[in-house]
Design brief:
It catalyses: D-glucose 6-phosphate + NADP(+) = 6-phospho-D-glucono-1,5-lactone + NADPH + H(+). Catalyzes the rate-limiting step of the oxidative pentose-phosphate pathway, which represents a route for the dissimilation of carbohydrates besides glycolysis. InterPro entries: G6P_DH, G6P_DH_AS, G6P_DH_C, G6P_DH_NAD-bd, NAD(P)-bd_dom_sf. Residues 191-474 form the Glucose-6-phosphate dehydrogenase C-terminal domain. The protein has 14 helices and 15 strands. It is of the alpha/beta class. The strands form 2 sheets. The protein has a 9-stranded mixed beta sheet, sandwiched between helices. The chain has a 6-stranded parallel beta sheet with strand order 3-2-1-4-5-6, with helices on both faces. The mean pLDDT is 94. The protein binds 6-O-phosphono-beta-D-glucopyranose (BG6). Residues 180, 218, 237-238, 343, 370 line the site of 6-O-phosphono-beta-D-glucopyranose.
């Protein structure tokens, strides 16, 4: 690999995202010698901090048993710079800092330089910072990469305004919009499963698949971030982005190549074939205190208005209107404060045609993204032994069992490595983002305009009453137990 002098500036370096995700991911890559050899990392934030305070902060999430020497070596690459987000002088000083540190890097390697600007910031600051960067720091003799995090706007209109403003400062190929679900092992694996195995792809269509369900469940509520959450709700928080991204990879046709633009073209095509989601095909919920009262309800949080109608649970049924999927219902379901932590994709196949066996259950392929990475196929077998009955079993690839000595990296490590390699495949392109908002914006506006009341469900339960029936009625889902 080319050894390119690289500078990473992390804006919002004193914040939670930087502490919990960005710096641990950088350290993870450093430990595996995956960072460029000539590297400078600059943390930038408003807070005044000594280098020691900064170091303490960024290492606080490195884990208990890290190698102290490695941490010390990593910290040698990191410095802190305190500045405002809208003051030109501060950005000019930042530029000087970048240049000074670049001069100190060992000479050699190619002449190219890479500057990565990582915005671990609230979205309200993206444009200010991008503007300051462009006017005072941007150096067109090097490769510039701007990394931003959701939320990218609030609806189609605000997202377009944001895209336009950022797009007037940075080229699309300089922008990396993070959707961290795209960096997850099992999400990255979908493409391989589908396009490297003949037996999946051959039956990956409406002739064999009855319905697809993508489910996201968290066992905790929004305590501590009620203020943020109330403005967004579950649809904007995880459905419009993470779940739709996963859906588009499950539904896409094979790209011409693994090149980022080819992959993203195919994903965008899927989104273009989804009609805006209707309220009639949606169920909304909001959690109340647990039955035993030990867990608070959503509105018990002081930062949440008492009359809030923000959904913390939602499920919708949608269709991808193309030859491959016409007639197949897709369900996306997401909820906070439910009974378990789980993110999975469940593909239910159709009934076996001309079956020799009466009342057969259906096959299912399940890709579990978290907490336990696994792929399993619900498969009917003869009950072992002298019996000739049938039994439901699984062809089971659980990663912990099969790959027990491999540690699966956090999604952020994967994505930061992609940024350093300039690979856009797992980042959201502006047209994909636009389509995702087009699908949800009319529904979101209707909910807000008509103040649609979400159904209550208890903290720790399986969701609002009737949630499972709602799905079964709409998709003809058949339980697979025999
Ligand atoms: C974030 C949402 O994007 O994703 C959170 O804002 C959610 O509400 C989180 O908890 C889930 O991510 P993960 O990686 O923990 O499944």
């Amino acid at each position: 690999k080319e050894d390119v002098p690289t500078t990473i500036v992390v804006f919002g370096a004193s914040g939670d995202l930087a502490k919990k995700k960005t710096f641990p991911a950088l350290f993870h890559l450093f430990q595996r010698s995956l960072l460029p050899k000539r590297l400078s990392i600059i943390g930038y934030a408003r807070t005044h901090m000594s280098p020691e305070e900064f170091h303490k902060r960024v290492t606080s999430h490195f884990g208990e048993d890290v190698d102290k020497k490695s941490v010390a070596n990593f910290l040698q690459l990191c410095t802190y710079f305190s500045g405002k987000y809208d003051v030109a002088d501060d950005f000019r000083s930042l530029r000087k800092e970048i240049e000074d540190r670049e001069k100190k890097m060992k000479p050699g390697g190619s002449g190219n330089r890479v500057h990565v600007y990582y915005m671990a910031l609230p979205p309200s600051m993206f444009v200010d910072v991008a503007t300051q960067l462009k006017n005072n720091v941007y150096d067109d003799s090097c490769t510039n990469r701007l990394v931003i995090e959701k939320p990218f706007g609030h609806d189609l209109k605000s997202s377009r305004v944001l895209s336009k403003e950022i797009g007037s400062l940075f080229e699309e190929n300089e922008i990396f919009r993070i959707d961290h679900y795209l960096g997850k092992e099992m999400v990255k694996n979908i493409l391989t499963l589908r396009f490297a195995n003949v037996f999946y792809e051959a039956v990956w269509n409406r002739h064999y698949i009855s319905n697809v369900q993508i489910t996201f469940k968290e066992p905790f509520g929004t305590e501590g971030r009620g203020g943020y959450f109330d403005e967004f709700g579950i649809i904007r928080d995880v459905m419009q982005n993470h779940m739709l991204q996963v859906l588009s990879i499950v539904a896409m046709t094979q790209p011409q190549s693994l090149d980022a633009e080819d992959v993203r073209d195919r994903k965008t095509e899927v989104l273009q074939r989804i009609l805006p989601i209707q309220l009639e095909d949606t169920m909304l919920g909001q959690y109340v205190a647990s039955i035993d009262g030990s867990k608070p309800g959503y509105k018990d949080d002081d930062t949440v208005p008492k009359d809030s109608i923000t959904p913390t649970f939602a499920q919708c049924v949608l269709h991808v209107d193309n030859d491959r999927w016409r007639g197949v219902p897709w369900v996306i379901k997401a909820g906070k404060a439910l009974n378990e932590a789980k993110m999975l994709i469940r593909i239910q196949y159709k009934d076996m045609p001309n079956s020799l066996f009466p009342n057969l259950a259906r096959n299912e392929l399940v890709i579990q993204v978290s907490p336990k990475e696994s792929v399993y196929i619900k498969t009917i077998v003869k009950e072992p032994g002298l019996s000739t009955n049938l039994a439901m079993s699984e062809l089971d690839l659980t990663y912990k069992t099969r790959y027990h000595d491999i540690s699966i990296p956090d999604a952020y490590a994967t994505l930061i490595l992609d940024v350093l390699n300039g690979d856009h495949s797992d980042f959201v392109r502006s047209d994909e983002l636009d389509e995702a908002w087009r699908i949800f914006t009319p529904l979101l506006h209707k909910i807000e305009r008509e103040r649609v009341e979400p159904l209550p469900y208890e903290y720790g339960s399986r969701g609002p009453e009737g949630a499972y029936q709602f799905v079964e009625d709409r998709v003809g889902y058949k339980r697979t137990g025999l």
